[in-house]
Write a structure and sequence with these properties.
mainly alpha; 26 helices; globular
């Protein structure tokens, strides 16, 4: 019984970690790390890829080398699945190590559970997140950074600095944010650490002589480059963030401020919060001045605003402690406690779903409440409390409605959307469940043993459900190295693959060939001007086919016939005709059956039922190349030529 009781919190936390963020495959930035590793294995193939022709962000991390060494022995689909799970567990293990150093013993488990159930997103448009449920170097770098911070807090300076260096080697951007916080922590404890700023002298000298990437400290992004970055990667600039995004930043800042004020003055938690606030101010100021205002290349790429990942991490971990401390401060006052809960639920990085702008009223009210509470009558307090409940209910209703609308868009298919996770993973539901189980756990040994047994069952169930890749994703990842079209493509071929849901995995993973163009390839364009310039040229080259493909997707969906529409010949001739120094793709893949020149076809089937998931057709561009496009023709104008059956 005692063993089950001891296992209960560990198994429950691990079950939550696995259940709330199921694995959906090689997607998002995981595709970029796959390409970086494949390039190391087959440089003659991938050096022609747009993602690498002008340089790559892989030059700043060792993670692709580690991946490439493993890909020599394991299939990508299996390897990415295992490493994604390991990354998540490692992140929360490192979080526990830092939490143990910062929070009082009674609030360590609640803090960890809050980290697990609260949203992990920060920054613009809720794009960025820590502990991502797919494979990149970020979860590992973040875990090592948290470990390094935990070592520094325990005054193990040398080990902590080495860990932070390792985090920077894996992911410089996440590592730099942690180094910034660590430096603020060290300076707060010993002003002599200010002398470490002398290390910037050789950096400035290297910048002055324009040596390597340090030249970016004195080189400004020109207007053409800036415009291209702004079009597809504008989220890296603070000036593009929406008011909703700033409301989330405000909520995180307010929680951090409260933690720094309400923790014991000499406690490690208060000191760490003070360091985090200082790092927040420095990081955001650097981004605003050096990146947004001066447009310097290196600061733009460094994205020092990413210090928000640590600010958000600490804010989320501190919520249980703040709520408890607020109740202790005003034991018969429900309003200030409800205010904190409402701020957490509405301002917790679900910017496009909940109501983050509500914090603009909730935070000032929480600040003013202690000053006016004695003047407020009991009925008025009841009205305020009802209003706060209404805010939480409205945010919850909005979230659930959006969730069901998205589910309907995907055809109500549980194989494509884990709707149970979407619904139950809402912080209010997951938080109430966690709070209730923590309360029961403290009721006595029998309850603890029962929860231990249930947690083990929950952990096993979460593991069984964790692999939530859609049938299409499973087919794609299982087709690596297979000649799906029955056509041997030259190793130096580049392929444009049009798909309803844009992804570079077709050429990279299935065909093991260079990708001619995908919007994903522009993710590193702030590091290399050439990527932006060549990217926009190739985007214009495939623009007519891409635009007509989107129309055909709608036509085929309305007619419920995959052959109701196909791309017009002028559009394909346009794409397949080189223009000035812009090469055309060698091959292209479409989900539409053209009337001629079909080189090969592939009909992927459901891994379990064998049901066809669609058909893709391979074409050779040389079969479609026209006479080219006159020099004077505006490349922004798509030629006509859409065909409908």
């Amino acid at each position: 019984m005692s063993t089950l009781r001891r296992l209960a919190p560990w198994c429950f936390a691990l079950a939550l970690v696995i259940y709330l963020r199921p694995y959906t495959g090689i997607r998002h930035d995981a595709t970029l790390y796959l390409a970086q590793a494949l390039r190391l294995l087959d440089p003659d193939i991938f050096n022609r890829d747009l993602f690498f022709v002008a340089g790559s962000q892989a030059d700043f991390t060792l993670f692709p080398q580690l991946l490439a060494s493993l890909l020599r022995h394991f299939q990508p689909g299996d390897l990415f699945l295992v490493l994604s799970l390991l990354g998540r567990i490692t992140f929360y293990g490192a979080s526990w190590y830092l939490i143990r150093a910062l929070f009082p013993p009674a609030w360590r488990w609640p803090s960890l559970l809050a980290l697990i159930v609260m949203p992990t997103r920060y920054g613009a448009y809720s794009i960025f997140a820590y502990a991502e449920p797919f494979l990149t170097s970020r979860p590992y770098a973040e875990a090592i950074a948290l470990l390094g911070l935990g070592l520094l807090v325990r005054r193990k300076h040398m080990a902590g600095i080495l860990a932070l260096g390792a985090a920077g080697i894996l992911h410089p951007l996440q590592g730099f944010a942690a180094v910034l916080l660590a430096w603020c922590w060290l300076v707060l404890h010993d002003r002599r650490w200010l002398w470490s700023l002398l290390a910037l002298v050789p950096v400035i000298a290297l910048a002055a002589f324009r040596v390597g990437p340090f030249a970016g400290l004195v080189t400004a992004i020109d207007y053409d480059w800036w415009e291209l970055i702004y079009m597809s990667s504008g989220q890296i600039y603070l000036g593009t963030w929406e008011p909703r995004d700033w409301c989330i930043v405000l909520a995180d800042f307010y929680f951090l401020y409260l933690l720094s004020r309400r923790a014991q003055a000499d406690s490690l938690l208060a000191q760490f919060c003070a360091a985090a606030l200082a790092a927040f101010a420095i990081g955001m100021t650097f981004s605003a001045v050096l990146a947004d205002l001066l447009q310097l290349v290196l600061p733009v790429g460094l994205q020092s605003w990413r210090v928000l990942w640590l600010v958000h991490w600490l804010a989320m971990a501190g919520i249980p402690y703040l709520v408890w401390e607020q109740w202790q401060r005003t034991p018969r006052e429900w309003v200030p406690v409800a205010l904190l809960v409402a701020i957490a639920l509405t301002g917790a990085s679900i910017s496009r779903i909940t109501l983050p702008w509500a914090v603009l009223g909730l935070i000032p009210l929480h600040i003013l409440w202690p000053r006016v509470t004695l003047k407020v009558s009991a009925p008025t307090k009841a009205i305020v409390l009802v209003g706060l409940v209404a805010v939480v209910v409205a945010a919850t209703f909005r979230y659930q409605m959006r969730a069901w609308l998205v589910f309907e868009v995907f055809g109500g298919d549980f194989e494509r959307v884990r709707q149970d996770v979407v619904i139950l993973g809402y912080p209010l539901f997951a938080g109430v469940l966690s709070f209730g189980l923590v309360w029961l756990y403290g009721r006595g040994p029998r309850w603890g043993a029962l929860l231990g047994a249930l947690s083990i069952v929950g952990l096993v169930g979460s593991l069984l459900l964790w692999d939530s890749r859609s049938p299409w994703t499973r087919v794609m990842e299982g087709s690596h190295g297979a000649n799906v079209f029955g056509v041997a493509l030259p190793r130096d071929a580049s392929v444009y693959w049009y798909a309803t849901e844009p992804s570079p995995l077709g050429p990279w993973l299935v065909l093991n060939r260079a990708n001619y163009f995908s919007i994903f390839q522009l993710s590193g364009q702030m590091f290399n001007r050439g990527t932006s310039m060549q990217g926009i040229q190739r985007q214009l080259q495939v623009g007519p086919v891409n635009s007509q493909g989107e129309i055909c997707d709608m036509v085929n969906a309305v007619n419920k016939d995959p052959h109701a529409c196909w791309i017009g010949k002028p559009g394909l001739q346009y794409m397949c005709s080189p223009y000035r120094d812009v090469p055309a793709p060698d091959y292209f893949v479409l989900p539409f059956r053209q009337q001629e020149h079909v080189l090969g076809r592939w009909t992927p089937r459901h891994p379990d039922s064998g049901t066809p998931l669609g058909t893709f057709y391979l074409y050779r561009c040389s079969d479609w190349a026209g006479q080219g496009v006159p020099e004077s023709e505006n490349r922004l104008l798509a030629p006509e030529g859409l065909n409908e059956a």
